Amino acid sequence: MEFNYTDIAQAVAVIISAGAVAILSYCMSKYGKNNVNKVLDYVRIAVKAVEQLGYVNGWDGKQKKSEALDYVTKTLNGKGIKCERKDLDMMIESIVAEFNRFNNQK
């Protein structure tokens, strides 16, 4: 039996995308669209920065996620924006999946 890894990767990307949509829908209903969009902007910045820092410092996925979560939490606290840690965690996962999907399409 021959495996087509491209088809498997595309199927996984579709599943992750569906999960990301569900996560964002949940957060928008909980916090409001404008607040979620602000938070997602900070999460995108954090994920991009942590990917670069992680590459330079040799961080694994767990360390990068921890650094991103720490950055976003501190930034939001400084702006007076309240968001539960578990929701931030889900948003980070969603943005990472979005970036991975984009990078796999190149």
Quick description:
This protein is 87% helix and 0% strand. It has 106 residues and is an all-alpha fold. The chain is globular, with a radius of gyration of 15 Å.
Describe this structure in words.
With 106 residues, the protein is an all-alpha fold. Helices cover 87% and strands 0% of the residues. The protein has helices at residues 5-31, 33-57, 61-79, 85-105. Helix 2 crosses helix 4 (85-105). It is globular, with a radius of gyration of 15 Å. The model has no long low-confidence stretch (mean pLDDT 80).
Query: Count of helices?
Result: 4
Q: Please state roughly what percent of the residues sit in beta strands, choosing from under 5%, 5-15%, 15-25%, 25-35%, 35-45% or over 45%.
A: under 5%
The backbone outline, from C-alpha atoms, is globular
Number of domains: 1
How many strands in all? 0
The SS-based structural class is mainly alpha
How far is it from the N-terminal to the C-terminal residue, by CA? 28 Å
- Average pLDDT reading: 80
The ordered string of helix (H) and strand (E) elements is HHHH
Instruction: Give the % helix.
Output: over 70%
Return residue spans where pLDDT drops below 50 for at least 5 consecutive residues. none
Protein name: Phage holin family protein
Keywords: Membrane, Transmembrane, Transmembrane helix
InterPro entries: Phage_holin_LL-H
Transmembrane segments: 6-28
